[in-house]
What we know:
Blueprint: E1 3-8, H1 9-22, E2 26-30, H2 32-36, H3 40-50, E3 54-57, H4 60-68, E4 74-77, H5 86-91, E5 94-98, H6 101-110, H7 113-118, E6 120-124, H8 139-149, E7 152-157, H9 166-187, E8 192-194, H10 198-203, E9 211-214, H11 216-219, E10 235-240, E11 243-247, E12 252-253, E13 258-259, E14 264-269, E15 286-289, E16 292-297, E17 305-308, E18 320-324, H12 330-336, H13 341-346, E19 353-357
Parallel strand pairs: 1-19, 2-3, 2-9, 3-4, 4-5, 5-6, 6-7, 7-8
Antiparallel strand pairs: 1-10, 10-18, 11-14, 12-13, 14-17, 15-16, 16-17
Helix pairs in contact: 1-3, 8-9
Amino acid sequence: METWLEINLKKLENNYNYIKTKTNTKICSVIKADGYGMGSYDIAKKLEMLGTDMFALAFVKEGERLRKKGIKKDILLLNFVSAEKLDSVIKNNLTLSLYSLEQLNLYVQKVSLEILKKIKFHIKINTGMNRLGFDKNDFPKLIKLIEKYELNILGSYCHFADVNDEEFTKKQYKEYIEFNSKLEKACNKKLIKHVCNSAGTLKYKAYHLDMVRVGMALYGLQPLKTLDENIESIFTWKCKISNIRKVEAGERLSYGNYLLREKKTIATLPVGYAHGYMRQLSNKGYVLIKGEVCNILGDICMDQMLIDVSHLKEVEVEEEVILLGENLKPEILGELANTIADDILCKISPRINRILIN
């Protein structure tokens, strides 16, 4: 293999068990975006075995795929689902997020009330992100429609925008609790309440309620600004050197005519932006060979990049290279590329082989 991604399921287990020590509530494991690029089925299979209470995905297609492969746990869909997909939602026993009057009216117009009654819903409440969710002013109409159509409401939730902003997070939590209290009273039952993501889970135990939604911490991404050494990276992205050459001072490298100021030994790697290695890391990023930092030189190409190996005493074709992993965290590359760690991880292409390590 020219490039591959190693997924350490034992470290995934360690991260999950660490989260369990931080909460007494249910755990909803977020495995959208193909398990943050790790492969949602293998991640789901392991987490189901470990006892996760629920999975969170973005779209119906993701849920269909997991059901076909035998995943049994409850699945909550966090994003928009078109009316045409509601039959599949019922068939695959998926739970929908209901977040607006317009969404509900769309369903009423396009499917029968019999189908609507069969769907399980969690109500999404907008507390300040202004992305998805019912506003306070929607409440009277929402309650009337829930009663009118006898909707099966099982839970409610909101999403914290920035847990480091303690005042705003407190405000979001307060608004959610007020809305949910009215909702439970109107529905005449207790709902599954969940507001904490990975960062919220680690920072605000008082806000855990009935369930926490954990994504990035499971994969080894750092949810908070302070390093938590109990959270381990479960992934290592590797490749092999495909070519080595001596390049004289004054010559140019790759696209963009990167000019060499001095003679260097340059190695070619068979990885580029089509693999999900972000082009923004051109002339900024670096890789590791035998623990040594090797800088990227020139523009990253579709399937290749060039690195400086001049300082290495011994290096040869097919030498193993670490592109991302425990000692080269996505938080580092994210900062260099002016993005976030999640973005670095989720960009890794499905074309790359995933190797499971137990």
